[in-house]
Specification:
heterodimer, A: mainly alpha, 14 helices, B: 301 residues, mainly alpha, globular
Amino acid sequence: MTSLAMPGNAALNKPARRPGRVIPGFGISLGFTLFYLALIVLIPLSAVFLNTFSMSWADFWATVTSERVMASYRLSFGASLIAAALNVVFGGIVAWVLVRYQFPGKRFIDALVDLPFALPTAVAGITLTALYSHNGWIGQYLTELGIKVAFTPLGVVVALTFIGLPFVVRTVQPVLEEAERELEEAAASLGAQPLQTFIRVVLPTITPALLTGFALAFARATGEYGSVIFIAGNLPMVSEITPLLIISKLEQYDYAGATAIAVVMLVFSFVLLLAINLLQAWTRKRAGKA
Amino acid sequence: MSAVLDKAAGPRPQAAAGRRIDTSVLEPVWVRYSLIGVALVFLTLFLFVPLAAVFTEALKKGWEVYVEAVIDADALSAIRLTLIAAAISVPLNLVFGVAAAWAIAKFEFRGKSILLTLIDLPFSISPVIAGMMYVLVFGASGWFGPWLAEHDIKILFAVPGIVLATVFITFPFVARELIPLMQQQGTEEEEAALVLGASGWSTFWRVTMPNIKWGLLYGVILCNARAMGEFGAVSVVSGHIRGETNTMPLHVEILYNEYNFTAAFAVASLLALLALVTLAAKSFIEWRLHEARKASNDAPH
């Protein structure tokens, strides 16, 4: 391995027998990668898990299932589910429109879809709050209808829909671009109605991508903090998200309590990450077969 | 390709003559227009209106108030800290990204897929938990807390903590862009250069670098946008000391919580401008990558 790290040497001594043999730098690049990964990610992350061992199982269980924490899970996961579902419907339509139709301003709109990735979450948070508060641009009309968005759980859904918007669009878009339209045309020429063609031909093709986008948006939403805290109102038991509970426990120096809740969230995100990896493999398989 | 499609879809009566693009669309016109309408209404509500609102709110009380909010001493110190955090974390993650992509794309080894998952890990961890990790490691009652206090080294509630949290949050960006790109490019060109006697470094700079430069820039731009805009993780480790440990997003929060809305939106508008510049640069690079791919596909092999 050390000889591979010496540039030139390997090239002189042995001809390229299999890929990777002749190229130098394996030891140093992999070594640095692992060192940096351990230093920045793995060691600090292990601190979270190791810290929970300072608690007894009973304490841990009591903390993560206390009434206020349970209410925060319901809000965080519930609002994230609704937001991700909204994004599947509307993100799917946006992806379809951007791939299949021509209209003025399309390129500009396509570029702007990534705005929620690029816009700092705090900026999104204060802006959405200003828009949806009772005298805001959108809020004033909703108030007339008797709908309150800012400082309610509905506001949390709005913020999470905003930050999850690009995920479904960006996972479905490439699949639609690759999809073979001949199949749809064949279905139509064999007498299928447009809706039938969509349900039987298009939908099966994009389902893995839709699900991947849903899972990505959901995962991002459950951990989201910046865009939510301004619009949520943060009332305990009503509009308090789980990440905010972690922060308030940290501010009270209740490290054990904060860690316990964080572990629940981490385990949940790892399970979701696994699901996303499987979904992406499925998407690739589907795309490869087509 | 499109000509073939047109021929295949030739005898369809509803296709308007002379409009090539619409010939492969099967659904009725009203469906088409309603879908475009739904998409535009959704994007207007969730993208265009918020974007317009940032700048409108920022300039509500006129240009002078805006400028005053931006050149306020605390705002300037927040801008400086944000630039420092990005200037440290982006190069670090750039070097990491290149090293990781080199190891993963150019060599075969066991556990590669686990390594790929671990590199992606920071994306699936809540920013709040990311900040908390560093509190557990460097905080007063954390692993290194007592030792740091003894030696009078401040990491938490100081600049090093903010930089660390930013490095963690932006960790995967460059690596994620480079790994698939370099995997796709393979090792043939580098092998040729090495066999012809080029050194490892000159192979990297003269052969690999020109091939990956746009992908690299793409990763750097996304990494930088996130580094400058990060809120949750930085909020946990910063301690919110005005003029000292406030980044731009944290300064926005403080101004907003003090009901100083115009100033909050003024600083926020700078971050929104950064987002727009990022998106423009991203579109430009995507176009360049697309052109480069087209050129390499057209070139005779």
